[in-house]
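tool=predict chain=A
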Amino acid sequence: MELDQLVNLANGLIKNEELQKGKNVLNLIKQSIIANPAQLKNLNDYFSTGECFMLALTEEISDNVDVNQMFSSLSYYFSSSGLYINNENLNLRKNRLLAMFYGFEPITYTVMNALDLTPHISDIFSNSGSMAPIKARDAIFRMEIADLEMYPELCQMEFFNNRIKVLRGMIDAGFFSENTKEQIIETGKKYHQKLYEYLKSKILIESEIDF
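tool=predict ok
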């Protein structure tokens, strides 16, 4: 069975609450991608693919941080690819936000690389080296804020309404270095662009899943 067929099968099984069968297919997808990352270039149903990888996170099919980094990064990439075609699609944006939320820890490592925050050998034991994960974490917060503030319709959902309350509380508390919410949004948009371009190069040019 081709990868796109496995993706649609997994989504259908999980939506029908046939969870164990769905998890089994998600594991097949994981094995298929690890064996042949180049096939990711052939996937063009961005919504279904981004959703599938997001479900792999929510269904917790793996406790391996590298596998979950792959799933969260791929969900982010495919959802973002769809948004480049239809920027107003709230379902794509929802899936991208969920990938960042449920894959928060593993995707932090991808963000570190995308924003060139990964410390060099000489910095590993320095303050700048130890700050890299924190900077990546804060970058993700800014990306969340950009999406939720620019598309407030998402906050009609209880999950995102609760999430924006937390993020706005951080803004009000002076958590971020920017002086205004508008500046935070612009920074978040810039980070979205950098992360997407990084993943696009890895997946489409290098056929790489070590993000």
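Residues 3-205 form one domain. The CA atoms of residues 145 and 185 lie 6 Å apart.
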